[in-house]
Amino acid sequence: MGIKVDDICFLYERGTAMQVRALDHISVEIPDDQFIGLIGHTGSGKSTFVQTLNGLLKVTSGHIYYNGEDIDGEKFDRKKLRSDVGLVFQYPEHQLFEVDVITDVCFGPKNLGLSESEARSRAIEALESVKMSKSLYKASPFDLSGGEKRRAAIAGVLAMRPKILILDEPTAGLDPRGRDEILGLIAEMKKERNMTIILVSHSMDDVARYVDRIMVMGGGKILYDDEPVKVFRHVKELEDLGLAAPQITYVMKLLKERGLDVNTDVLRVKEAAAEILAHRRELHV
Amino acid sequence: MLNRFTPMIKIQKLIHDYIKRDDEGNVAGTVRAIGGVDLHVEPGRFIAILGHNGSGKSTLAKHLNALLFPTEGTVWVDGMSTSDGKNLWEIRREAGMVFQNPDNQIIAQVVEEDVGFGPENIGVPTEEIWTRVEESLKAVGMLEHRKKSPNRLSGGQKQRVSIAGVIAMEPKCIILDEPTAMLDPNGRKEVIKAAKKLNREKGITVILITHYMEEAVDADMIFVMDKGVVAMQGTPREIFCQVERMKELQLDVPQVTLLGHELRKAGLAIPDCILTKEELADALLGAPEAAGEKEEADGDQS
């Protein structure tokens, strides 16, 4: 069933001179088993929005329904919500703290009240999902490389077996291969577990490569909510919002301007190559 | 002190070991982060350093303004060796550093005070501080925000304030260690534009460390680090035409270069290393006829 967001607003410092409207009447549905990209410039409200989804922030007005139940309702099980809707913050490796990797990953499930052995088996399952080498289970989290630390931190949230996984800039600061690894992993996990993934990202190229649906935030509102090719048709508007289109889309638009009649609804290198080759006869080479 | 024969940066046989200690403080082992680097940067250049996480690029960067000292070998900044204690302050003034996270580098409550902090610390007369603050903020396009509180700024704006803080020290060189990693597309563009402008207009040597390959396309020279050594060096064209080699080093090439590479593999006779979308369009469709069109293409280098 997923999450239904019904006309929510969120105000920081409500009732003071510093009051800021971070979310401004958002209504949106997040069904099961979807890969969603959430983009928007710094300060557009993305982080606030995702924190309302698992009840870390309580909305100022409006309602959020999880599987049909109001998450602010009296009888609602919030603990369950927090394990069902997993949130991986930016630079999650800063939150690793235990003596070794596996104990760190066990922390969440143990907090849910699971037995030691059950917590452990969930931790192992999560570590396998993020392709952590067995030899590192007993290593101190602080001895891992940047990419490994990040995978360990993601495993910590996965061990809660979330149905919806929200990742806030999971690739920030990683090298190109590290980026591909983490995103590939997320795509694979989604397939395996039929989870809904919400990927918050500043990289239009990453988003273009993986997601089925993009939500664009600006000024606390969701301005576009559609499949990627349709969203990236609004290049001008996205740029005005401090965003951009994928690099490849710009290439195709330029070719079109220069008179080559290519389809500009193209986001990835392989598709672009195919599209250009289909117009081979019009080329000057 | 600077003459045209003094390189901005000269590194000879640099080795850096991190020392690992156990709970009692005894040496438990060493990790070699830099294993013999030679490097030469002429004044006024725009240099990019690429490399995967853990390749040693940030360690190298910290040697460039004497935050770290060589285990072996020598690093000269504008002719001054970083191993010589008496050069320390002069080196740090001449080679300023900007880090990844803007929030860790801004300390004052007001933008202009933050920018003035450095010069004030080294005893620049008050009047001159204000001149420097004004010029630095102007150079990064942040003058209109001088009275604002830094926490009201966007990431790209904060990062430009950090850069202004470095410029206010009148450095000859700025080292940017992944300055755009945490920024949105617009913020990234603003910061890179500011760095290019400083290089072009003030002749400041720029050393940009980045994971975004597109940001290195306009550099004069690229150094690629791997396992603590310089694995490749050359112009962007020389580096990015080696698509497979870059992938081996856990890196990438700009998307448009990759597209050119794919098209060549499919048999199109286009030049080997395409770096910009304009180049690709020219290669596929011939150079544009009207001069007016060209101008437009030059304006935007995204």
Task: Please explain how this structure is put together.
The complex is a heterodimer of chains A (285) and B (302). By secondary structure, chain A is α/β, with parallel strands linked by helices. Chain A has a domain at 246-285. Helices cover 38% and strands 21% of the residues of chain A. In chain A, the strands form 2 sheets. Chain A has a 6-stranded mixed sheet with strand order 6-7-8-3-9-10, with helices on both faces. Chain A has a 4-stranded antiparallel sheet with strand order 2-1-4-5, covered by helices on one side. In chain A, helix 4 (116-129) packs across helix 5 (146-158). Chain A is globular and about 70 Å long. Chain B is of the alpha/beta class and 302 residues long. In chain B, the strands form 2 sheets. Chain B has a 6-stranded mixed sheet, with helices on both faces. A 4-stranded antiparallel sheet of chain B has the order 2-1-4-5. Chain B has 2 domains: 43-66 and 89-242, P-loop containing nucleotide triphosphate hydrolases (Rossmann fold, 3-Layer(aba) Sandwich), CATH 3.40.50.300; 254-296, no CATH class. Chain B has helices spanning 57-64, 88-94, 111-121, 126-139, 155-167, 185-202, 236-240, 243-248, 255-265, 277-285, 291-299, and strands at 9-21, 27-41, 46-51, 72-77, 80-81, 95-98, 173-177, 205-209, 221-226, 229-234. At the A-B interface, helix 6, helix 10 and helix 11 of A face helix 6, helix 9 and helix 10 of B.
